[in-house]
Amino acid sequence: MGPHPAVAAIRLAVRRVLHDVLTDLTDRPAGHSPNPSGGIPAAAAGTLPLVLVACSGGADSMALASALAFEAPKLGIRAGGITVDHGLQAGSDLRAAEVVTRMTALRLDPVESVSVRVGRDGGPEAAARDARYGALDEAADRLGAAAVLLGHTRDDQAETVLLGLARGSGIRSLSGMAEVSGGPGRSHRYRRPFLQIDRQTARKACMVQSLPVWDDPHNIDPAYTRSRLRHEGLPALEKALGKGVVEALARTAQLSRDDADALDSWAAEAEAGVRDADGRLECAKLYALPPAVRRRVLRRAVVAAGSPAGSLFARHIEEVDRLITGWRGQGAINLPGRVEAQRQGGRLVIRQG
Predict the structure, then answer these.
(1) How far is residue 287's CA from residue 347's CA, in Å, rounded to a whole number?
(2) Which of 110, 237, 279, 291 could form a disulfide with 80 if both were Cys (CB 3.0 to 4.6 A apart)?
């Protein structure tokens, strides 16, 4: 008799991602290191490649950790784990130590707990996320990991789409989380095997394998927007619209991502054609672009000038766009990151003040 269907589903999802990681390592140009700090990756040093799981101790990440521990050795991959102690709750250090013990029991190696200090920029949820990814990046660089697996499920994806819709940030926000993501020099670092798997499947997989899980009280705290959406918003939508809302939102995310990727590619190609010989943006040429492409060009320019991408919303870019489409002699537009945008002599000047 094979494994329980829930266990089989999570293992298959992880196996597919690990095959993708191995393919990327094989296709990587000779001498290229996935470590931006310049260190030699484990595979290049003659040992097995390392894949880490980011594990909070919750059902999603514990299911992911168990599947990674089962599948990685069969593919010649070392499996390790990282848990991040945000220090936001009493006893968080003891809880992190317990997660380390659980991952070690799964025979993951190396296993680490990393403590972070959570700031305030962007609100508590965004600040915790930024601190967490910073810690994961540091650990992956130091250990020479080829990838870091994250336990986001289809339910998380649906919540992310709805949060993006509420912000009114455009099609990119509606595209949710990518299956593969990362920052400069590490674009393929983060992998999300469970985006097509619902939260209940992950929890069931833990139950049938007798894996202990920890339910973060923040996940049911109405002070957090995502928690309210999870326990009040989505159930209300399903009551009004019927079952299948989560699956529909996940499909919306994928379709939106495909469209957003195509428009981003168009904007990247168009940007060179709207700059003058000195590299300044020409308003007349910007005006001739389709609005969706023009706004992407503007957003790229604002981010390049120093505005944090995570702090830029649709309303910011719309204000900059009015310097092109609704010019009435208005003054400079103030943007996040102390960036200013103003129109001068038919050119759009974007710079930090």
Answers:
(1) 11
(2) 110
Query: CB 101: neighbour CB atoms within 10 A?
Result: 11
- C-alpha 86 chain-centroid distance: 18
What pLDDT score does 79 carry?
98
pLDDT tens digits along 162-189 = 988 887 667 887 899 999 998 777 778 9
pLDDT > 90: what percent of the chain? 71
Torsion of CA 105, 109, 113, 118, to 10 degrees: -120
Whether residue 106 is predicted with pLDDT greater than 50 in this model: the reply is yes
- 97's tokens: 């130590």
CA neighbours within 13 Å on the CB side: how many for 86?
A: 19
The pTM is what? 0.83
Q: How far is CA 252 from CA 217, 225, 238, 285, 311, in A?
A: 29, 21, 16, 32, 23
How far from the centroid of its chain's Cα atoms is residue 144's Cα?
Answer: 20
83 within 8 A of 103, measured Cβ to Cβ: yes
Lowest mean pLDDT among 122-126, 202-206, 332-336: 122-126
Q: Which residues of 309-343 are buried (b: 16+ CB within 10 A; e: fewer)?
A: eeebebebbbbbbebbeeeeeeebbebbeebbbeb
Q: How crowded is residue 145: how many other Cβ atoms within 10 Å of its Cβ?
A: 26
Q: Is 269 buried (19+), middle (13-18) or exposed (0-12) by CB count in 10 A?
A: exposed
